[in-house]
Amino acid sequence: MSSKPKILIVDDEPRMCKSLELILSRHNYQIETANNVKSAIDNISHKPFDLILTDIVMDDSDGFQVMDHINRHNIDTVVVMMTGYASTDTAVEALRKGAYDYIRKPFETEEVINTIENALSQRRLLAKQKEAEEELRESEQRFRTLVETIPHGIQEIDTDGKITFANPAHHKIWGYSEAEFKDKTIYDLAISDEAGKELREYIKYLVTDQPEPTPWFGQDRKKDGQIIDVQVDWNYKKDKDDKVVGFISIISDITERKKTERLLNEARAGLEREVEERTADLRKANEQLIRSERLAATGQLAASIAHEINSPLQAINVLLGSMGKQYRDDAHLTENIDILKQASGNIRDTVRSLQDLNRPGTELKQPANINEIIRQTATLARNLLKRNRIGIQLDLSDAVPNIQLSPQQMYQVILNLINNSIESMTGQPDLQNRTNREEYLRKEIRIASKIESDHIHVIVSDTGPGIPDKDIQYIFDPFFTSKKKMGLGVGLSNCYGIVEEHNGTIVAENNSDGGAVITITLPV
């Protein structure tokens, strides 16, 4: 609509047209005139007018034809009719055809101005209303399109849980048609009767307490029986009195997301376990490397010390032998010489142990069975075991095959482990840590063998006090000893070196029921 409303005056009397044009022009209106119906219709067909002021009765026709043309072509304008032959029928007909009002001739200028102004005001209001209705229609269309195309379910329920509205995506989630959803409640979709009861109580709680809306996560059952995970983002639906009358929800099927989350969690847990295992393996390998390097360095030092001791020791032994022959009749001196020979022998044995640190792999390897070595070693140790009242049990697997090894060195390893167990069980019993003294006194060594995959495992265990926790990580280190009597501390480090030379591992731990457990693992 232009800033100056445009008015067409239609009257077959030129003086009336001129008079109205002069009056209305003074009130800021744009005026055009037509002296007959034909001219009026031609103007209306080609130009827009905000208002048509037309006489009803004219020589060539009447103003109703103008109204008919406007209605037939749906022209956007407002009509005010004038007549000098006013009657009830004429007024009714004018209003029926859509005229805003009519004016009786003769009329006052103020009456014409007020009627036109009111008609234009109504036109402006109608235009705004039409614009608002169009916006509303477009908004409703956008909302309808959104509701019908959104991939999430939209649902309205009342306080009894009855579904009062649902979009196509909602039907698709559960697999029901729109007609099948007609009389359903949200409780009918629950995975069980118990779940339905819990949901009913939850809805009652929401209606009564009205807590802040938060997403609800749960499970529902589809028409085909499949259980799905759903996320419900909801809000209250209230009436004008702020009373809760229902709920509006957006529902998402998160079954695949939950499955992916579970897989990711499992993968993360598996990765964490693998990292922990790899870290433990690396720590163990690092400890073995440090021990091996320490053993190698110690062996080199031991070889140097043994060389320095052997030369004077040999001279001492020769001299003692000579003195023994020369003074064999002197009993007291001969006794002292024998004591010196025994001490020299101890020194010699110690030197040999030191030398073994530097040459664990000098023995020739050959096909042999570890079970046979274990049996032979147990037989040789029988008298020592019997003297200390210690039993021995062998549980050797017949499936253990022959492997490349040094029988002499493996005999040394097994015998060393048996000796360590004997020494640990011949000390004083720790009665504070034993609930049954008689059980402690049943001293026993168990040696078992088995094969798993491509490795042979030899397990040596005893019923002794076990290895102190503070010592267990050091027992294979050179010169480490916890013996109260004098001990050099090279026995287990020798065992470690021999097993490592055979590409195996040796591990110490404590049995949960008491006693130490040494496990040797050798490749097949």
What would your notes on this structure say?
Strand 16 (about 505-510) and strand 17 (about 515-524) form a beta hairpin. The chain starts with 5 loop residues before the first strand and ends with a strand. It is α/β, with parallel strands linked by helices. It has helices at about 15-25, 35-45, 65-70, 90-95, 110-150, 170-175, 195-210, 255-325, 330-355, 370-380, 380-385, 405-425, 435-440, 490-500; strands at about 5-10, 30-35, 50-55, 80-85, 100-105, 155-160, 165, 215-220, 225-240, 245-255, 365-370, 390-395, 405, 445-450, 455-460, 505-510, 515-524. Helix 10 crosses helix 12. About 50% of the residues lie in helices and about 20% in strands. It is built from 14 helices and 17 strands. It folds into 4 domains: about 5-145, 3-Layer(aba) Sandwich (Rossmann fold), CATH 3.40.50; about 150-255, PAS domain (Beta-Lactamase, 2-Layer Sandwich), CATH 3.30.450; about 265-360, Helix Hairpins, CATH 1.10.287; about 360-430 and about 435-524, Histidine kinase-like ATPase, C-terminal domain (Heat Shock Protein 90, 2-Layer Sandwich).
